[in-house]
Structures are given as structure tokens and as C-alpha cells.
Specification:
This protein is an alpha+beta fold. The chain is built from 20 helices and 14 strands. It has helices spanning 13-30, 33-50, 65-77, 95-114, 117-129, 218-225, 227-232, 321-340, 372-377, 381-384, 390-415, 431-470, 473-480, 482-495, 514-559, 561-567, 580-607, 612-625, 630-652, 659-762; strands spanning 84-88, 133-148, 177-191, 196-198, 209-216, 258-265, 270-274, 282-287, 302-303, 305-307, 310-314, 345-347, 385-387, 568-572. A hairpin with a 2-residue loop joins strand 10 (305-307) and strand 11 (310-314). Helix 4 crosses helix 13 and helix 15 crosses helix 16 (561-567).
């Protein structure tokens, strides 16, 4: 049932012609006889693998060898997600290519992890083993966030890079809103084998276009192609699980979807989106959105058996379907024969109780017989019971089992599924026989393993091309983790700047106040700190510019198809489960061999320095083959470069003299040493005599100085003595004068006393006496 569109399609003549052309192309590819036969076969194979049977056929016994073979082959050809390996093509010393390889490998590893790569490739491998074709589709999915334009005429910095989204940044001014790229990712979509179409061709390289079919709800169409397209499109598909017999069920309309064809035409490198249920409606037409070398966003599908006249594959099951059907027939017969092997027979009805022998439990139990004489006359139980002969039936059962084993052996010869591949072995076979059998089985598996590995590698290469062509430089830096490493390198460059010496304190001016002196010292210290900070900033800026230039060169390699092809190679590791013990043994062997080789190389290089460079190249070649970390590789290269520089510096020095020159130089050195010794002795004698003369002169001078000092002392003594005598004379005069004055005072006193006595004597005496 097809719904009518909400509005009449508004298509012009060009859209009508485009729609008609591609509708006819896809319809023609779908109606190809070989293609339709393959689809019918694939449907039956899928039903057989799922063992879908109706109720009547459930009683039939089948041997589902298809399920067994697929479950055995699948882990042998694909069991884990491959790891991207991006290396320099010629493994030489190319820093820009090494950085480009590192960035691309890290981004690829992250995208493989988040793109559901393993789940969808696993489904494709399952389709490869059942219908005979498996395919995936790589899709670029940017995410945007709304922002405001602050400056006028804001433009995208890199206008040459084609953006998959309509506009990463729209021009505008003022506070106009625009969509800003916030995140980028890749999606690996599984393509159901019935939803993948291709143009008529005999081999894959002749295919003119590829297409895939998807279904979208109306809201999804509106989000992807706009509101106008969503109004015109017809929702003409209802999922099978949503169908109902109730015609009045209104909820069924909520599950309706539109069938969309996404067609990639290599001739004009254009992508077309059309809806076959809406005639004349071209949803989108876009010119080469991803800039891929092979244009298509999908690899060559995993094809089973093919012939040179058509691409349509032949499912593997049809190569041994007769043997599989024969196994089913034999299994059904074995089931019927097994059912027939029962204790069935007849017995004499006159002998009551005999039937209970096979109907009841008779362990340690006696069953009575009514007419014992008659029972014994007939020969006992052998005469009254006759069972169906089971020996012949059992023999037939053994023949059927043997026949089925033979059919299985025939089928294994066709498919190459040996016992070793299945993990089974014959205990009677020798180890050599089992190894030979396993080797022949691996030869049959090797082609399929390589095909799956190439399929996974081609997906990785398409993802790598999209990352290189479309992803923004900021996304590459952040997603690869190189921004963190660059910041660390810049910080290390700043830390490598030597600390400035402490400022020498100046002699303070005695007249300067202490506060001014302390302020000047603090200013000197701050100036030295500012100079150091400036030196750190200059070193970090220089390192940042160096790293940015290196990243720009790596980005140039990634952006250029030619440079990327010339200097970078993209591969994957094995898609089958590796042996951890083998990897560990290989790493240990490499480490031990490296140490031993370096010890031996040291002695060789000392004897022949010119062998340093080839030995270093051989060492780097070995390490690059073993896929060591690029940091180790860079460290080894730096160490070898430094060693080479030291060797060249030592080589620029004069060569050591020969033996005769050494002998002559020894004699000359001996003579020169004797002359130097005599000269030194003479010099020492002269210096000793000069020292003695100087000492004598110093001694004489000392004597003179001592005599002068003694004379000076004597003079000072005389002066002191003269001064003492002078002082003594003065003291004597002073004393004499003092004695004279004292005598005069005494004489005067005595005169006064004598006068007083005379005066007393001359006074008259009182009367009465």
C-alpha cells in the first residue's frame, strides 16, 4: 500500500530526467536474470542456515552442515578488529612523514573504535559466507553547534578544503547566529546484501556506479533534506514486523518509511539521492563530497566464487549442496532405522502372562504361566515368542553411518574443511600426518583470509582518505593527542632555559638610606626574574613555531593525494586472533638480538668508523620492520645522529703519529724535559739566590729599622729623662718656695704670738689682787 504525498511534488524538467534515468538504471540492475537467481538462492541459503522449517517438516531430521561450516570458517578468517598501521612508504628518515603517519594512525584507531567497525564488518563476513557478498559503507558525520558572529564578514580560514557539510561557518555580521563545527566522526554502516546495487559490468573495475538502499521516516527526511522535500516524499514502506491483518489499524501509519536510493556515479563524480516511490523527486544532488581517489565510499565487496562474465557471485553452499542434501537424506534414514530398532514381535495368545515380559519390569520377578506342560512342550519362551529380526536392521544402520561419513569426506574434499581445521584429530594419525593435513587446509583458507584482510584494509584506507581530506586541523591535533605532546614539548623547552645567576649586590653608598638600598636590590632581582621569564617565553615560542611548522608539513602530506601516496602507506594487521606467546617471543628475541648486536657493533665501529652509518641504517630497518613505537625509533635516530657527530668531530682532530714519530717525539720530549729540568733548576737556583739576597736585604733593612727604632727609643728616653729632670727641678723649686713660705708663715706666726705676749704683759693688772 502506497500513501499519497502530503503535497504534489514540485519538480522541474531536469529533476524529472535525473529521476527517470536513475530509476531505470537501478531497476535494470535489479531485474538482471543472474542477479534475481542469486537473490533467490541467497534467500534459500539463509533459511537453511537459520533452519527455518514449517510445522510439517519439523519431524524430518536434518544435518545442518551449512551452519557448522560457517561457524568453523568465520573465526578462521575474521575474529577481531584489525589495527590500522600507517607507516612511511620507504621507511627512511622523514620527520614530516613520520608525524603525518602518527597523526593519521592515531585518528584512524580512534575512529575505528567508535564507528562500530567490528560489528558491521562481522555482519559483512557473515553475508560473504552465506549469500556470497558482504559490503559496508563509510559515512562522514559532522556535528555543529550554534554560535554568534562577533566580527563582520567572518570567513572560513581554509577555503580550499571542501567541506562535506553545507557550510561549516556561514558569513554574517553583528550578532547573527551561525553553525560552527564542533565534532567530526566516521560511521561504518553495514549494507544488507539486498540493499546494495551496482551498474552492469563483468568485473568490479568496470562498474560505473554503486548504490545503496535505506529507509527514512518523515522526520529523518526533513532533518536530512529539508522541510520542502519531506512534504513531497511518499512513505511507501512498512517494516515487515509492523504489518497487521487489521485494515482499520491506525497505528500502522506511524511506522511507515520512505525508500531512498543513494547513488554514486563515477563518470561525473556526483551523488544522487532519489525516492523511487515519489516520481520526479530528486532529494539531493552533490558533486564529489569526499574527494576520494576512487570516489566511492565503499570498498570492493567480499565476493564468493565469481566467473569472468558477471560480478554476481555463486554462494559457497551451492558448490556442495548435493552432498548437504545427501547428508540430510541419510540423517533422516538413520533416524527412521533407529526408531525401527525395537523389541517388536508376536506371541502365542494361549499362553497368558508371556506378554508381560516386555511390558513390565521383570527384574528379580517371576511371572506365573497357567499351563506349564504346554508351555514347556512348545520350547518355553522361544517357542511362544517371535521377535522381529533386529540384527539385519542394525547392520543397515551401521551401513548408513558409514555412508554418511563417506559423504562428509566427499564434502570436505570439496570445501577443504579438514579435521584439523575443525579441531578434531585421529589419535591413530602421526603428528606429521596431522601437520600436512593442516597445511593443505591452510592453503585453502589463505585465499579467504587475504580477501577479508584486503576488504578490511580498503575500508581503513577510505576512512584515512576522508580523515586526510575533510577533518579540520584542530580535530586532527586533539583526536590524535598530539596537542598534549606539543604542549609537553613546549613546557620542556621552557624548563631547559638555565636559571639566571643571582644579581651581585652593589656596594651600598654610605650616605644612602637603608630603605632605598633594599628597594634597589629588590628591583634588580625583579628585573633578573623578568629577563628569565622573557627567555622562557622566547624558547617556548620558538619551540611552538617549530612544532607548528612540522605539523603544517605533515598536514600538507595528508592533504595532498600525491604526497600521501608517495610517502605514507596504510595497511592493517591480521584479522585473525594472534598468538600472544609468539608476539612475546618475537619481542624478547628482538631485544636480545639488539643488545648483542650493539656489543658487537661497538668493537667494529672502533676499528672501522665508516661502518657506523650502515650499521645504524640496518638497526633502524630492523626496528621498523618489528613496528616498535615511533618514540623509540626517534630516540634511536637521535642517538645514532649524536654518535655520528661525535665520530666526525673526533675524525676532524689530527691523526695520531706513527711509531717512529712517537719515538722521535719521545726523544725530543726527553731532551726537552732535560732542558726544562736544567732550566727549571737554574731558575730555581736563581730564584733561591734572589730570595736569599732579598732576605738579606730585608734582614739588613730590618737591622737598620731596629737601630733607628732603638735610637728613636733612646732619644725618647732622653727626652723623657730631661722632661723628668725639668719637672723635678720645677718640683724642687715649688717645694723650696713652699718650704720658704711655710717658714715665713711660721716666723710671722711666732712674731704675732710674741707680740701678743708682750702686749699682755704690758696691760695693767686688776685691783684687788
Amino acid at each position: 500500500m502506497v500513501d499519497t504525498p502530503d503535497a504534489e511534488p514540485t519538480t522541474d524538467r531536469d529533476d524529472q530526467e535525473c529521476w527517470s534515468r536513475w530509476y531505470a538504471e537501478v531497476q535494470h540492475s535489479q531485474k538482471d536474470i543472474v542477479y534475481t537467481q542469486w537473490l533467490e538462492r541467497s534467500k534459500r541459503i539463509t533459511e537453511r542456515y537459520r533452519d527455518e522449517r514449517n510445522r510439517a517438516s519439523l519431524k524430518l531430521r536434518k544435518y545442518n552442515v551449512l551452519w557448522s561450516n560457517v561457524q568453523t570458517l568465520k573465526p578462521a578468517i575474521y575474529s577481531r578488529t584489525p589495527k590500522p598501521i600507517v607507516e612511511r612508504r620507504f621507511m627512511d628518515k622523514d620527520p614530516a612523514a613520520r608525524l603525518a603517519s602518527t597523526v593519521l594512525e592515531r585518528v584512524l584507531s580512534f575512529q575505528v573504535e567508535i564507528s562500530h567497525y567490528h560489528d558491521h564488518v562481522d555482519k559483512s563476513v557473515n553475508d560473504y559466507l552465506l549469500p556470497g557478498m558482504g559490503q559496508v559503507w563509510v559515512r562522514y558525520e559532522p556535528e555543529f553547534e550554534t554560535d554568534l558572529i562577533e566580527e563582520e564578514n567572518t570567513e572560513v580560514e581554509d577555503e580550499e578544503r571542501d567541506q562535506t557539510a553545507d557550510d561549516i561557518q556561514n558569513e554574517g555580521d553583528g550578532d547573527e547566529a551561525y553553525e560552527k563545527l564542533s565534532y567530526e566522526r566516521l560511521c561504518v554502516d553495514y549494507v544488507y546484501y539486498r540493499d546494495f546495487f551496482w551498474g552492469a559490468a563483468r568485473c568490479w573495475y568496470e562498474v560505473p556506479w554503486v548504490a545503496r538502499r535505506t529507509w527514512m521516516t518523515k522526520s529523518e527526511v526533513e532533518e536530512r533534506f529539508g522541510e520542502d522535500k519531506a512534504k513531497q516524499i511518499v512513505l511507501d514502506y512498512t517494516p515487515q514486523q509492523m504489518l497487521t491483518t487489521d485494515k482499520e489499524d491506525k497505528t500502522i501509519s506511524f511506522f511507515k518509511k520512505a525508500e531512498i536510493w543513494e547513488i554514486w556515479n563515477k563518470a561525473d563524480r556526483t551523488v544522487y539521492f532519489i525516492a523511487p516511490g515519489t516520481p520526479g523527486l530528486v532529494l539531493e544532488e552533490k558533486d564529489d563530497p569526499l574527494k576520494l581517489e576512487n570516489f566511492w565510499p565503499c570498498p570492493e565487496p567480499l565476493f564468493a566464487t565469481q566467473t569472468s562474465d558477471t560480478i554476481v557471485p555463486v554462494p559457497d553452499y551451492y558448490e556442495y549442496q548435493d552432498q548437504a542434501q545427501e547428508l540430510d537424506d541419510l540423517t533422516q534414514r538413520i533416524s527412521m532405522i533407529t526408531t525401527a530398532i525395537r523389541a517388536n514381535g508376536v506371541y502365542d495368545a494361549s499362553q497368558k502372562g508371556v506378554e508381560r515380559l516386555l511390558q513390565e519390569g521383570v527384574d528379580n520377578k517371576l511371572i506365573p504361566v497357567d499351563n506349564w506342560p504346554a508351555f514347556t512342550e512348545k520350547g518355553g519362551s522361544a517357542g511362544v515368542i517371535s521377535l522381529i529380526p533386529m540384527q539385519e536392521i542394525a547392520q543397515v544402520l551401521l551401513w548408513l553411518y558409514e555412508a554418511r561419513n563417506q559423504v562428509k569426506a566427499d564434502m570436505q574434499e570439496i570445501t577443504g574443511m579438514s579435521d584439523i581445521v575443525r579441531g578434531q584429530g585421529n589419535p591413530n594419525e602421526t603428528a606429521t600426518a596431522q601437520r600436512i593435513k593442516g597445511q593443505f587446509a591452510s592453503l585453502r583458507l589463505q585465499e579467504r583470509q587475504e580477501k577479508v584482510a584486503h576488504f578490511c584494509r580498503d575500508i581503513i584506507r577510505i576512512m584515512a582518505e576522508i580523515i586526510s581530506e575533510v577533518f579540520a586541523p584542530e580535530t586532527l591535533l586533539e583526536m590524535s593527542g598530539m596537542s598534549v605532546e606539543f604542549r609537553d614539548e613546549v613546557e620542556k623547552a621552557g624548563q631547559a632555559v638555565p636559571l639566571p645567576p643571582p644579581p651581585q649586590p652593589q656596594q651600598p653608598d654610605p650616605n644612602m638610606p637603608p630603605e632605598v638600598a633594599a628597594m634597589m636590590a629588590q628591583q634588580a632581582q625583579m628585573q633578573a626574574q623578568q629577563q628569565y621569564q622573557m627567555a622562557v617565553q622566547q624558547a617556548q615560542q620558538a619551540k611552538s613555531q617549530e612544532l607548528q611548522a612540522e605539523f603544517d608539513r605533515a598536514l600538507e602530506i595528508l592533504r595532498s593525494d600525491k604526497l600521501r601516496g608517495f610517502r605514507v602507506e596504510i595497511e592493517t594487521d591480521s584479522t585473525i586472533q594472534p598468538d600472544a606467546s609468539e608476539d612475546k617471543a618475537a619481542a624478547t628475541e628482538l631485544f636480545a638480538a639488539t643488545l648483542q648486536g650493539l656489543q658487537n657493533a661497538g668493537a667494529i665501529v672502533m676499528q672501522a668508523p665508516e661502518l657506523l652509518e650502515p650499521i645504524g641504517d640496518l638497526l633502524m630497518f630492523t626496528y621498523r620492520k618489528f613496528r616498535v613505537g615511533r618514540s623509540i625509533e626517534s630516540s634511536l635516530e637521535d642517538a645514532l645522529t649524536q654518535m655520528k657527530e661525535r665520530m666526525e668531530a673526533s675524525a676532524s682532530q689530527p691523526k695520531p703519529p706513527s711509531e717512529e714519530q712517537v719515538k722521535a717525539q719521545g726523544e725530543q720530549a726527553k731532551i726537552a724535559a732535560e732542558l726544562d729540568r736544567d732550566k727549571a733548576k737554574f731558575q730555581m737556583d736563581m730564584e733561591a739566590k734572589q730570595a736569599d739576597f732579598a732576605l738579606q736585604q730585608q734582614k739588613n733593612q730590618t737591622e737598620l729599622d731596629r737601630a733607628a727604632a732603638d735610637l728613636q727609643i733612646e732619644r725618647e728616653k732622653l727626652d723623657i729623662e730631661r722632661q723628668r729632670m725639668e719637672m723635678q727641678r720645677v718640683n724642687d723649686i715649688v717645694k723650696t718656695a713652699s718650704d720658704l713660705e711655710r717658714t715665713n708663715n711660721k716666723v710671722t706666726l711666732q712674731r704675732e704670738q710674741h707680740a701678743m705676749k708682750i702686749e699682755q704683759m704690758n696691760q695693767p693688772k686688776p685691783e684687788g689682787r
